[in-house]
Amino acid sequence: MPLSPHLIASALSRHNAPRHIYIGYSGGIDSHVLLHLCASIAALKDKITAVYVHHGLQAEAGSWARHCEKTAQALDLDFKVLRVQAAAKPGESPEEAARNARYNALKSLMITDDILLVAQHREDQLETVLLQLFRGGGLRGLSGIPRSMTFGPGVLLRPLLDVAKQAIDDYAKAHALVWVEDPSNQRNDYDRNFLRNDIVPLLKQRWPALDKTVARSAGHCADAEQVIAEVVDDLMATVCNAADSTLDISRLTAYPPLRQKLLIRQWFRRLGLKMPAQRVVERIQSDVLAAREDGGPVLVGSGYCIRRYRNKLYCLPPVEQEIPLDTCWVNGETSLRITNRHMLAYMPASTGILRDRWESACVEVRFRSGGEKIRLPKRSGRHALKKLFQEAGIPPWEREMMPLVYLDDRLAAVGDRWISAEFYHEQVDACIRLVMQTSLL
Description:
Layout: H1 5-13, E1 20-24, H2 29-39, E2 48-54, H3 61-74, E3 78-83, H4 94-107, E4 114-117, H5 122-134, H6 139-142, E5 148-151, E6 154-157, H7 165-174, H8 191-206, H9 210-239, E7 240-241, E8 246-248, H10 249-253, H11 257-270, H12 278-289, E9 298-301, E10 304-309, E11 312-316, E12 327-328, E13 335-337, E14 342-354, H13 355-360, E15 363-366, E16 373-375, E17 382-384, H14 385-392, H15 396-400, E18 404-407, E19 410-414, E20 418-419, E21 424-438
Parallel strand pairs: 1-2, 1-4, 2-3, 4-6
Antiparallel strand pairs: 5-6, 7-8, 8-11, 9-10, 10-11, 12-15, 13-14, 14-21, 15-18, 16-17, 18-19, 19-20
């Protein structure tokens, strides 16, 4: 069946009427066909913006951007260029880095009821499923590319996902479209290009309908994944502590090992982390869940750190770097960096340390050296910080990073947890209280 604008209208009809439609336009044949189809729908033209993402990775990128702008102008469509930095991070492939940069940039455009259209087609789906299979992907990976998904406050749609590549090529030729060719598509050092250039054509000699049948299998996997996800969501309600996003170890380990794995993967997904490899999940089970309660095991991965404490399984950012303390808090400054992710700040309050006393004192901030004690308001005696931390259930790694605040060389506060009875006051609008803040560097 030849391509027609009806395919686009049908895909859009399944969603709320779009406020604005962005089209990912690289200048290649696939995105040009998508742009041309959309421009053929008169009712949409005032809502469409073609968007070219400039990665800066190719010498020709500037000329491609100009080509895209001229094409959009010829179709009487708005056009926008987004410039991104696509350098790969540790553990990230160049393809993955470029894709992440591209989608993050496009996501920044979206507001409620906006729709982003991209031009992936059935052979893209075939390549994705094969890559996931070769990498040992699970059901989620073998489900391939979804037709639609939440994208920031808007929606991302792939209206050509069930369309054969040949149909796209035929449409481009029939309408005499002019597109750019990315020379890097011919380089087989990228896995996807190797499949596209050498493997898929060979497979199609034997199985001509391969893209259609693999897409059907991906659909079966997606259906199964959805059912499993619904079951796992119900199980997560029994093991996940909503207040701090930890897992209840005793409840988690009451489930058979297979369900434990599903729950751990769902936990990572909820935390917005990359899905852990099978060996990582197994190490969480064997090295962390099965460890002695007082063993203090630590499992460090890419972008996370797994720990346990008092029947809770924690997934934390990587180990933090201490900022050298034993430093004076400059008078007039409202905050002080404690680690690479945390700051200690103060704000006006009616209970806490008197502001006048704070401003007239030499304020120093230190980490623990051991043996510190503090007398608390409305409690008798002096209390070792070690005992207070244990009573409050503060994990050991948080204790290590807890700043101690001294006024004129006397312990006045322990982070934002406790204030010494010597310094504690209740006086309307005359005090300050300390607050620990998470910051991004």
